[in-house]
Amino acid sequence: MSRDDTVPPAPGRPRCSTIAQVAVHVPPDRQTGEEIEDDVRARNPGIRLLPGLLRQMYGFEERRVAPAGTWPSDLAAEAGRHALDRAGLGPDAVDLLIFASAGEDVEEPATAHIVAHKLGVTAPVFDVQNACNGVLNALEIADSLIRTGRYERVLVTTGERNSLLSALPVRDRAELSQFLPVCTLGDLGAALLLEASDRPGLLGSAFRANSAGWHAATVTNPYIDPQPGTQTVRFDFRALAASYAGMEVAALDTLRSMGHTPDDFRLFCVQQPSVPTTRAILRALGVPEDRTVATFPRYGNVATANLPLQLVEAEQRGMVHPGDLVAMFGLASGASAGMLLMEWHPLGAPKPPAQRTRHTASLAPWQGPTTHHRKEHTP
């Protein structure tokens, strides 16, 4: 279905949106917790790090790591290409592209431009950034724009390249305690294709913020540093957990306001910053573990790509079927929480890839910023 032959909703029926496809791009290389710990010791000789600490504290086993020279836009573009291929669509079918990662290739312009360039998409683009909740916010925005009739098809993309942060130096034991969660960050690309529909797919969403907790987890901007030598990355897990207080109650209130309880949902996708935290979230929501997909032990914390990854794995395992109710609950530093409810209506079996509209004569591979300053911190 192209832009020109989109079927309008039937008279008297509201215009809705549905997630037609979801796809991920998984980097090929793996790095175990033990390998990460060895690397931290080698880079920081004065730091004593007990073997197996990442497994003991967070339930972390391994993460995926993208090849050197890979940018967030590369991971997002690959996932976006998978989603379009599965739908049998070319890049000209996209009306709007949103990039919603926790990190970006450059400070300016929007990384969405780079993703669109790599895909051959010529539609309008913009970035959305809200730490790990970026994709949830992007879905809310895309749904609203589709419902108003502004766009028919929106491609939401993200690419997380946060494994690079674990190469940052650690000065002392105090810094180590706030640095350890960074060692569980993994790389992944994800994309969700939303389409206009006369059948409700996205049923509703609600968000809540406690901005007084912004200081609990920070990654400073390398281009704006009023205090030279300031710690670049800091995660205070206790302060972060405290900043989420009461947000699970708001999530349950969202369910009840829509006439649902957790028992109504076939699948619950929740943000997974660690195994203990994931279990605590599920207990607070009253959701049994067999209704979610545990991704953290094998992928680490992949930030905004976490929820799409769980959707893909649930679909592959046969845990969710067309017509099932699905909830996505996100927690992000800042702090914020978001709940999105939907009825699962994917397009079905992947279609043969469509003939793509390319402008290959003018395309050149993205080489990164032309100066020596980089947003990413390379090893």
Short structural description:
The protein is of the alpha/beta class. The protein is built from eleven helices and 13 strands.
Can you give keywords for this protein?
five-stranded mixed beta sheet; globular; 379 residues; 28% helix; disordered N terminus; four-stranded mixed beta sheet; disordered C terminus; alpha/beta; Peroxisomal Thiolase, Chain A, domain 1
Topology:
Layout: E1 16-25, E2 29-32, H1 33-43, H2 53-58, E3 62-65, H3 72-87, E4 96-99, H4 111-119, E5 125-127, H5 134-147, E6 153-161, H6 173-179, E7 187-197, E8 202-209, E9 217-219, E10 233-235, H7 237-243, H8 247-257, E11 267-270, H9 275-285, H10 296-299, H11 306-316, E12 325-332, E13 336-343
Parallel strand pairs: 4-5, 4-6, 11-12
Antiparallel strand pairs: 1-7, 2-3, 6-7, 8-13, 9-10, 12-13
Helix pairs in contact: 3-4
Question: What summary fits the major beta sheet?
Answer: 5 strands, mixed
Number of strands: 13
CATH topology (level 3) name: Peroxisomal Thiolase, Chain A, domain 1
List the uncertain runs. 1-10, 349-365, 370-379
Beta-strand residue percentage: 15-25%
Give the count of structural domains: 1
What structural class results from the helix and strand content?
alpha/beta
Q: Which homologous superfamily in CATH is the superfamily?
A: Thiolase/Chalcone synthase
Supply the number of helical segments: 11
**Outline type:** globular
Q: Spell the H/E element sequence.
A: EEHHEHEHEHEHEEEEHHEHHHEE
Percent helix range: 25-40%
CATH class: Alpha Beta
Strand order in space, largest sheet: 1-7-6-4-5
Radius of gyration equals 20 Å
Terminal Cα span:
45 Å
In round numbers, the mean pLDDT is 86
Q: In the CATH classification, which architecture applies?
A: 3-Layer(aba) Sandwich
